[in-house]
TrEMBL record, chains A, B:
Domain Peptidase M20 dimerisation, chain residue ranges per copy: 195-352
Signal peptide: none
InterPro entries: Cyt/Met_Dipeptidase (IPR051458), Peptidase_M20 (IPR002933), Peptidase_M20_dimer (IPR011650)
Ranges that cross the membrane: none
Protein name as annotated: Peptidase M20 dimerisation domain-containing protein
GO biological process: proteolysis
Organism superkingdom: Bacteria
One annotated GO molecular function: metal ion binding
Length: 455, 455
């Protein structure tokens, strides 16, 4: 079956890449208002493209950038429905000077296309669409109904799409839900992801004077807001790497051994970190490094600043200090509850008299889904056929906040997957995507659809 | 006696201010190489000025900006010698947009002259010189020899002057040594300063990856260098505000009650901090706030940074983190020893595998001198006559690193004083100096010289 798609791809390679590169050329940077026009042009182009292979489309207005919805319900109401989640927005390109070719002029080099969005998510989106186009081109009957939800705000928190989910509930109903925005474990090792951690964020600022003070004239009697904040934050962990905030672990889901045993616990996180020359590793005591990333919540410092940070020295008691914290959450932890535990803790630990400002984020919940669902089994089967090796089942320490919401609204079995690799440099300069992997992605999607169609 | 000087000042007010403002017009910013010419022009102008009232001068080359030396030894070798320390360099003017008038165009407003250096130290320097000029103009015999050491690198650490002290030892020998670079306790409350804390600085940087990492993909197993550094630094103090670094207090001089009882312990540090709306105060347990600032060493955070610090949120494990620390030291604490204690402590507290870089500063010692020296008594007497109120004797939590070195080389009794006020905004935009205070400063110096001369 795969051979037929392979042949079609070979016969139409030039057209496929011409279209893909046209898609990559839109500077669809969602975070930058200056690119609003590019966003709309990109969504419009994609809408027309979908219509060339049998999809009916709608451009959904949101509070931000529009979501492109497409459907091909030709299989009929008694057949199952598969929903894909993809996104057409990309990250900013800074620092521009580190790019070897212009980020929105796709350039092929050593078998890879280099461009912003090459993999995240335009590349993953486009091989998915190309697979659906192949069914149309080959006049192969779709044995399932297919829905596409291609949003424009994944890189900026998906607020727009989140805001219209209720209104679009019926449209998004499905039996199977594939999120194609994930990585493989290695060039030859496909994987499907069956759980994600949630997230919540908090910014804390402290101020104890209108301006920076002379550290000689004031040091010893004025509370230093850098020291006060550092002290309050640093006791949020004990020596074992456990979070000390009362109640933090109260609702942490504990898994049955059987629930977890299907996952690939032989993945070595140190291998994942090797490209970045990481020297020091530590997880929560009582858990492996991988467990600490996959099934345990963490609290991390994402940024901090206070006082003078340039070269040399400025002997001041800083006027203010700031720390940005975030938690990755596991199922059953409520982001709002966790935030209020952190806020309470900080208020108790920071000295009286100091001005404290807390800025609380929105947050989203973690989730885990069965490794034994029909979708999981069939997606793994497709990958195994294409890559000729067993497909690993993994969890993920990261978060796509919209996914649990979409999963709930769709009512579908969920699998998250993709053929990205850390080395593709998503979000970084010279983001790239191997064209051979693009083709394998195409084949995998085609085969998933075939299998779900009953072939 | 004061009346004679008062009258002379009144008779020559215009000339005095013309000269003072000419001095203020030089953009003698020592830290900025672009102002090298201004520095030299300023020193040259001042050299000529000294020669108009009987001083012999030398411009001493240093590794940086020159020091202007002047002497009037007409009193003869059997009379005592008084050395003044002053400086002609000033702080940078940034942020320029916050100035209401150009910083190097002295502007008189509501009885104050506004200019960079108005008080620090050109103002304090110039009333001192004007007092010496008055002796010459009034044909009053100097009963003491006077030496002037007017340096050009006070604002950048005095390395140049420090480097030539040994070579200039003989020239700098004196019986009395006045440093005119200090503040009063209030508009009507003169004070003399008889001790200063020393200083030492250290920058610590940690790195655990080549780039910032995704906090979802890596959070839980990669050591976060912000968290590691915060944790190591925050345990440098206990809950009582005491520094926990082993050995930190070992050489802290403990004073006899009698040694300290002359000092003005009724000064309220909260009053000093009031203009800056400070809300939280704390000192070392077992000591008053003022003791914590004057006679106890402190360790402070002067700056810190890590990761993303802009608006919104970026969920990363930062690649690196940085903290700037400094200690204010008391007599008998050796800056080098203290630095090595801190470095040892940090090395033990930071996790293995993380890259740690320590950048150690030079440092200088603290010092305290007798409130009962002849110079202290006579300076206080002069202030009491001019201000018609008792003069307080105080210590100072800050540091002028060159002063203990100069005191040692000169072999003289030391008093530090001046008529600055915190509200003059030294180092800040719109630095100013009240002209009435300028005149009082002039009278005080004239009277000190008279008293030391035996009148």
């Amino acid at each position: 079956m795969i051979d037929q798609f392979k042949q079609w791809f070979a016969d139409h390679r030039d057209t496929i890449y011409d279209d893909f590169f046209a898609f990559l050329k839109f500077a669809s940077i969602s975070t930058d208002p200056a690119h609003k026009k590019d966003m709309l042009a990109c969504a419009g182009w994609l809408q027309k493209y979908l219509e060339t292979f049998g999809f009916q489309t709608e451009l959904w207005e949101t509070s931000g950038h529009p979501t492109l919805y497409g459907e091909n319900l030709s299989a009929g109401p008694d057949r199952p429905t598969l929903l894909f989640y993809l996104h057409y927005d990309v990250q900013p390109v800074t620092p521009l000077e580190e790019w070897n070719s212009p980020p929105f002029e796709p350039t092929v080099k050593e078998g890879k296309v280099v461009a912003r969005g090459a993999v995240d998510n335009k590349g993953q989106c486009f091989y998915t669409l190309t697979a659906l186009k192949a069914f149309h081109a080959l006049s192969k009957k779709l044995g399932i109904n297919v829905k596409l939800c291609i949003e424009g705000e994944e890189e900026i928190g998906s607020e727009g799409l989140s805001g219209i989910l209720d209104a679009k509930k019926e449209k998004l109903k499905a039996d199977y839900f594939l999120v194609i925005d994930f990585d493989m474990l290695g060039e030859k090792q496909p994987a499907i992801t069956l759980g994600m951690r949630g997230i919540t964020t908090i910014n804390i600022s402290c101020r104890n004077s209108t301006v920076d003070l002379h550290s000689g004239s004031f040091g010893g009697f004025v509370v230093n807001p850098a020291r006060a904040l550092m002290r309050a934050v640093s006791v949020m962990w004990d020596d074992e790497g456990k979070v000390t905030i009362p109640g933090f672990y109260d609702k942490v889901k504990s898994f049955q051994k059987e629930e977890l045993e299907e996952f690939a616990w032989d993945v070595d996180p140190k291998d994942l970190a090797a490209p970045f020359k990481v020297g020091a590793f530590a997880g929560e005591s009582g858990y492996s490094l991988l467990e600490s990333n996959w099934i345990r919540p963490v609290l991390e410092i994402n940024g901090m600043s206070s006082g003078y940070t340039g070269s040399g020295f400025k002997t001041i008691i800083p006027a203010k200090s700031m720390v940005k914290l975030s938690c990755r959450l596991v199922p059953d932890q409520d982001p709002k509850e966790i935030l209020s535990l952190i806020a309470d803790f900080l208020k108790k630990k920071l000295p009286a008299g100091i001005d404290v400002e807390l800025e609380l984020g929105h947050g989203s919940r973690g989730m885990i889904t069965s490794p034994h669902s029909k979708l999981a089994e069939m997606t793994a089967q497709a990958f195994e056929e294409v890559f000729q090796t067993s497909c690993k089942k993994v969890l993920c320490g990261a978060t796509i906040p919209i996914v649990p919401e979409l999963a709930k609204v769709s009512g579908a079995e969920l699998v998250m997957t993709g053929v990205g690799l850390a080395e593709d440099g998503m979000h970084a300069p010279n983001e790239s995507f191997g064209l051979e992997r693009f083709e394998k992605g195409f084949l995998s999607i085609a085969r998933i659809v075939e299998i779900l169609s009953g072939e």
